[in-house]
Amino acid sequence: MAEENNITESAKEKQKEPEEAGKTEEREDHGQLLITAQEADNYEEKLRLYDKALNLDPGCFDAWLQKGFVLDRIGKSEEALACYDKAFELDPEHLGIKCLKGFAYNNLGDFEKAIECYDEVLKVNPEDVFSWYQKGSVLESLGRYGEAMEAYDRALEIDPTDVLIREKRLRLLELIYKKGTLSDSPDSSFN
């Protein structure tokens, strides 16, 4: 009887092994890790999961892209750019990478490179509202108010319902009127 119990216990253990191995493999699937990372509540956990996914599949475009986004959000824009470069190697036609790189350059204070990124997107897709908006924001940071206004206006031509761009444009108008100058604007003769 004791021998029979040992055989039964041994059989149960052997049956559990493949089941547990299946669960481990399921948890180790890079696609599942990406889904879990998106649901994670904090950036450290997201980064840990993206790194784990990249260890399983170093060619996982989405993991590089999302890792870069998280790094940029926590102020590690240099590291984010490296991730975006990896993603760009995997998909050089993906315009979203150029937008994200522009955002990272903006966060680093490298406004000219940010503008270059947005201009690259706009050459391919002149209707990209996000790039027009971001370009306007960067130009505004540089004090190039007339060009910023033109970028916001172009974005609003494409999507006149975008409240965020309307608010940004109104704030810029207020700033221009307070400063009393729009020297780089085609309307500078009105000052």
Mean pLDDT: 84
Q: Helix-strand pattern, N to C?
A: HHHHHHHHHH
Main sheet: strands, sense, barrel: none
* Strand elements, count: 0
Distance between the termini: 101 Å
Q: What percent strand?
A: under 5%
Report the radius of gyration as a whole number of Å. Answer: 25 Å
Helix content: over 70%
Category by helix and strand content: mainly alpha
In short:
This protein has 191 residues and is mainly α.
Q: How are the secondary structure elements laid out?
A:
Blueprint (H helix, E strand, L loop, with lengths): L1 H26 L2 H10 L3 H14 L4 H13 L3 H14 L4 H14 L2 H14 L4 H13 L3 H14 L4 H17 L12
Helix pairs in contact: 2-3, 3-4, 4-5, 5-6, 6-7, 6-8, 7-8, 8-9, 9-10
Written overview of the protein:
By secondary structure, this protein is mostly helical. Helix content is 78%, strand content 0%. The chain contains ten helices and no strands. It has helices at 2-27, 30-39, 43-56, 61-73, 77-90, 95-108, 111-124, 129-141, 145-158, 163-179. Helix 3 (43-56) packs antiparallel against helix 4, helix 4 (61-73) runs antiparallel to helix 5 (77-90) and helix 8 (129-141) runs antiparallel to helix 9 (145-158). The protein starts with a helix and ends in a 12-residue tail after the last helix.
